[in-house]
Amino acid sequence: MSESEVSAIVEGVRHFVRREIVPNVQRLEEQDDFPQHVVDAMAELGLFGMVVPQAYGGLDLPLEDYVAIMEELGAGWSAMPSFLNSHCTVARLISLYGTDEQKQRYLPELADGSRRGAIVLTEPSTGSDLKQIRTQAVPQEDGGFVLNGQKIFITNGQRARLHMVLARQPAPDGKGPISLFIVESETPGFEVSRLIHKMGFKHVDTAELRFDGVKLDRLALLGGLAGQGLPQVLSILETGRLAMAGTAVGMARNALAVALQYSKDRETFGQPICNHQAVQIHLANMATQLVAARAMIREALRHKAQYGRADMLSSMAKLFATEATMTITQEAMRVLGGYGYVAEFPIERLYREAPIYVLTEGTNEIQRIIIAREMIKADGPDRLGLM
What we know:
By secondary structure, this protein is an alpha+beta fold. It is 52% helix and 14% strand.
């Protein structure tokens, strides 16, 4: 795919969001029904196949364009990138590590959106510490496994039809090999035990899942080799963090646009409030943080393109962009004053939704630990030009 074709895809998504989503976002948000027509439109644009190789019907977009599309979606309606990010993580894992049989079986349906994916990692008692997971995959004589355990906070956990589950084989010391398993939602013993109600993103199902004697055949083990689950997951976390950073920047763009327009329309003391210095300070702070967040994402993307990995910079980008988005939505609420607290205006929703970005794809406390550990390494400061 040529650069012009890729640019046309990003531009097409931008036009779609501005034409079909932005004018209708308030109505979409207020509806209780799941916006299946929005998901169908995203599938029609090929967005569920963004990271799937073209040989399997996908677009195979460069990472920078994937992140740019997530920003555009986040700028329109923050639910939209949430429908995609977990799905694309599953598709990327199968594309990178799946056997030929797994790729042929699953990637075409993931690419066209007829089968949506969910990444299933977190457990109630382990949080971000994936090395301590307890979900067990017991090997069987026929080469398959029996899966037992519980997972929580799974995005798209109810509507996904393909779940990529992190589990470990039993061992006397409790430290058996950890692997990723492909679980189809129709498999007996798989259950969505409850949906979790959140302060935002009501159209994005967040689920608790239970695996009770789920029988898996040999094809379920990603890549066909046990014990590779953690390296496989860790290798794509930086991609997910950059996508999350881009999505947060999109939300921040939305908040700034609303606040700026409101400041031009709203008048006090005989003039638009954008002429008041107190409001100008808020607008300047918001714009500066937004541009800085986008610049950090671009630096992380450049670093990854040059070195192949960008663990420290992707964590920095996710940390800075999501914290900036929290601040920007709060500044926007201050610009709107009392109207910012009213559900009729979008800032109320954005203010409620912004905190999710500092908690997912690894909490920002985890990002800080990753950054510090990378800095301590001998070549850490050199890679950033700090020494």
